[in-house]
Design goal:
The structure is a single chain. This protein is of the alpha/beta class. It has a single domain, classed as 3-Layer(aba) Sandwich (UDP-N-acetylmuramoyl-L-alanine:D-glutamate ligase). Helix content is 32%, strand content 29%. The strands form three sheets. The chain has a nine-stranded mixed beta sheet with strand order 5-4-1-8-9-12-13-14-15, with helices on both faces. Strands 3-2-6-7 form a four-stranded mixed beta sheet. A hairpin with a 2-residue loop joins strand 14 and strand 15. The longest helix is centred in the C-terminal third of the chain and has 16 residues. One of its GO terms (molecular function) is kinase activity. This is Ribokinase.
Length: 292
């Protein structure tokens, strides 16, 4: 029985910014695994991923960090192209290859208190997979993938298929300011949070970029600030980094407010470079101390 089991595809990413173009691994499971490996081992953690035969080097690197890892076979590895303009909050995406979806057979033997589903595309996790995992533990979902599909190589917005069926099985939902408009057709984070909670979700985490975050849990709202980075280099993986810090702290018994602030500080450090969070808990605590 693990505290957290992260399930999702490790991707190949091409990241284009005004300053440069870099190639690296990506995906929710990648950013979460690399990020959590930098934190004190107070939480037991497992990674479950799918990659193609020729791209398992990054999985080996994660295993070498001491992460308990299951790598399932796939015909291909997900290959994303992320392009950012002058406004780092906006990006355009293409998918040059897709991996196989996760199935009930893939997850039926897993055991964890929290299952975090890092959805990248709409068909990654079927309602049947979510329902299977919800019988075992709390399901945490990053909604981003459920709202985008691939047409040709272009990533296009799509409706949240089976929304109510999936949310009824979801304990923690993470979304951003763009995604909340799709799910609940509102620009008001508190209105969206209440709407999602009414569909069965216990904790709603809405990140608002440089404006911070709003968390709705137990009938209460928590406003989380965005701590100012020394410079903004790359926002790729920030949402995944937030989920990492939040679930890590919640697994240790921290309140939603404490977990949200810890997660926000992790994101500040991640923003300052390309790639996953590579700081320490001491770095996180230093940001929290200086912002008081």
């Amino acid at each position: 029985m693990y505290d957290i089991c992260s399930i999702g595809h490790i991707t190949r990413d091409k990241i284009i910014t005004p300053e440069k173009t870099v190639f690296m691994a990506g995906g929710t499971s990648f950013y979460m695994s690399r990020g959590i490996s930098r934190l004190p081992r107070r939480v037991s953690y497992q990674l479950v991923t799918k990659v193609g035969e020729g791209h398992r080097g990054e999985v080996a690197k994660i295993k070498a960090l001491g992460i308990d890892t299951i790598c399932l076979p796939s015909r291909h590895t997900v290959y994303f192209e992320n392009s950012y303009g002058a406004d780092s909050n906006n990006r355009t995406q293409r998918v040059l290859a897709k991996a196989d979806a996760f199935t009930v057979d893939d997850v039926s033997s897993l055991n964890a208190k929290i299952f975090h589903l890092g959805s990248l595309l709409a068909d990654d996790f079927s309602p049947e997979v979510v329902e299977c995992l919800a019988e075992k533990g709390t399901v945490s979902i990053d909604v981003q993938g459920y709202l985008r599909e691939v047409v040709g190589q272009d990533v296009r917005a799509t409706a949240f298929r089976d929304r109510d069926r999936i949310l009824a099985c979801t304990g923690i939902l993470k979304l951003n300011e763009h995604e909340m408009r799709v799910i609940a057709d509102s620009d008001d984070a508190r209105t969206v949070a209440r709407d999602i909670a009414a569909r069965g979700v216990s904790e709603v985490v809405i990140t608002l970029g440089s404006y911070g975050s709003v968390i709705y849990a137990g009938g209460s709202f928590y406003d989380i600030p965005a701590y100012r980075p020394r410079r903004v280099v790359d926002t790729t993986g920030c949402g995944d980094t937030f989920s990492t810090g939040y679930l890590y702290c919640r697994s240790l018994g921290a309140s939603p407010d404490e977990a949200g602030r810890y997660a926000a500080a992790m994101c500040t450090l991640k923003l300052e470079h390309s790639g996953p969070f590579d700081g320490t808990e001491e770095d996180i605590k230093e940001i929290l101390k200086n912002e008081k």
